Here is the input.
Amino acid sequence: MKEVGQAWKWGPDEEQARRDLLEAIKAGTELQLPTKDAPFTIYTDWSSMGMGAVLCQELEGEERVVAYASRSCTATEANYSSYEGEGLAAVWGVTHFRAYLQGHKFTLVTDHQPLLWLMTNQMLTGRNARWAMRLQEYDFVIKHRAGKTLQHADGLSRNPPPEEEQQWAAAAQFLGFANYYNRFVPQYAKIAAPLTNLLKKNTPYKWEPKHQEAVEQLKQALTSAPVLILPDPERDYVIEADASDQAVGAVLIQDQGNGLQPIAYLSNKLHGAELNYPIHDKEALAIIIAFKAWRCYLEGRRTTVYTDHCSLKYLKTQPNLSRRQVRWIDFLETHFHYDIVYKPGHKNKADALSRPAHVAAIQVEGMNPLLKGLFTHGYAIDPEIPLAEKRHLLQWDSDIAYRKGSTKIWVPNYPPLRQLLLEEYHDVLYAGHFGSNKTLTGIAKHYYWPHMADDVQKFVTSCDTCQRMKSSKQKKAGLLQPLPVPEQPWQVVSLDFITGLPPTSSGHDAILVVIDKFSKMGHFIPTHTTARTEETAQLFVRHIISRHGIPTTLISDRDPKFTSRFWKELMSLLGTKLAMSSAYHPQTDGQTERLNQIVEQLLRAACKDDISKWDLHLPVLEFAYNNATHAATGQTPFFLCYGRHPLTPQKPTASATVQPAHDFITTMHQLWDRTHKRLLDIQQQQKRQADRHRNDHTITVGDQVLLDTRNLDISHLPSKLRPRFCGPFLVEAQAWDV
Here is the structure.
């Protein structure tokens, strides 16, 4: 540490000491293992260079560090205001240490006092509102502590000081940049005086707090009014762009009557292949990035671009272009009106924005010790790791294995670790419980293990929350199970009620519809909705049994009349088997449901002039239906039952030819056989059609199933938010194949 009165010096010894200290911090030998009982405190801090977070617990009256983390800011994050930057650091820190903080009450300590009202502020921006929503799942309080006393995270968010010469050059570049706008900054000379004196010739370079304070005041002045102005869409724009080996910078400027004033600044670090571009392409890239960033302002207006790279003036006319340059020119020519003008570098205001300090921020983006311990243990017990090393599939860094040629961490075959990662990318609130494809994409950004897609698929399909809360997009389970086709008329009968009709003078307001499953013959019997089970039984005996005999099977829905004890005992005495449809599944007796529609259609046509006497029309309508050819059988119900067609007004006389009794019986049996075969063929055709939309899934005793909630009485929950399924329930018995 620098002693009071000692000149600042940063040489090889200081740099080596910094590296040794950084390695010691990364090793984590001084970290305290967390306990479940002691409360947590998390300290966060932000600067334009990075953000840091330190997680602590108070043990035996002393605050001990449990874990720490920091990362550099992106170009966008570096331009955040102090309020938004500190808010970002808080959200990032809490999320980073989620494994410790979820389910525990903790204290969030910040040196930015306005952050105290983040969770209660009613005038939040969209970004702040999203952060507040992410923090709502945690139980915590926010406390303020002045920056000088917040040493835990403060150091993690700051740059280590560069060497003397580099810092002098950086200060000179910054002051030159600020000087250009000095006429817009009140008391500029007074604010910049410490920097001006520091940079005088023959003055020893010694960076003190007053110099840093001057820099911060100038940065604040340069990024606010009256220096920074709002754009005028009716005026032309000016861009000054520049590039260095490591970064690009640009300034968007406009003259609104007071000379050129900045509208916005831009500074981007170069990455990957961009670092290897020739200087010509780096300077052109600075222009492209600026036009992309400020496209909303520049389209439709004339823009003048100043660059300190003279050859860019001939970018559009040079004879030999690379593919990259062709793409850039196509982008500029398609969307903008612009001119490129040369300006020497010392006059270019963007020059300072493209030349960052040479010492990068400390990046201790370490995983927390708990997670790292799982990885270490997993690598030790996974038998596949030595094989992967032998095949040169791994590369190691800080005891963590990475996939060769990739930045993805190789996850060992250790079930608790893989389960934790799957839960983190699927189950937690901010993961969203998405499907297997999105979950796999999220994990694959940072991790890899063999057959990862299969593991994700199994995990997501077995997620209990997804099964309960999401609507099923799959085909219905179970193939169609058609009812047996009868071989003769009136063996199998189905019945149902048509209700909601207007009362007639006879007191009828409903119809009992009875249909034969073989011949399709129907009887329409007027009744009333208040009829008791005994009255319904009398109607059935009087109109059905008296004419056609006792059926072997009776199909109905679960109307209280048909589920009563009296009805069941009556059918049992008659020797008739009751077959009732499943609850909320009218397709079981779809034939009767369809006949109900036909009866209602016939009634509407017959009663268009007088609806009060609809029951008087039922006998004639019944005759009309039974004398019409049915599509399923190809015959009329009359003919299939009686072997002849009834007399009608269109056929006033009967045929004089009478078929012999023996021939009649033979003909009827042949007709019934053909009809039975035709009904079977139609039924199989319907089954094939229905099974195209169903899964061949069999439910057996011992299975656990979920129950659809659409028809359950859970009205205390709004329909939009109620679970789509409930359960699981154990299957104890199987009434039929499903």
Observations:
- The two ends are 79 Å apart (CA to CA).
- The first strand starts at residue 40 and ends at 46.
- The first helix runs from residue 12 to 27.
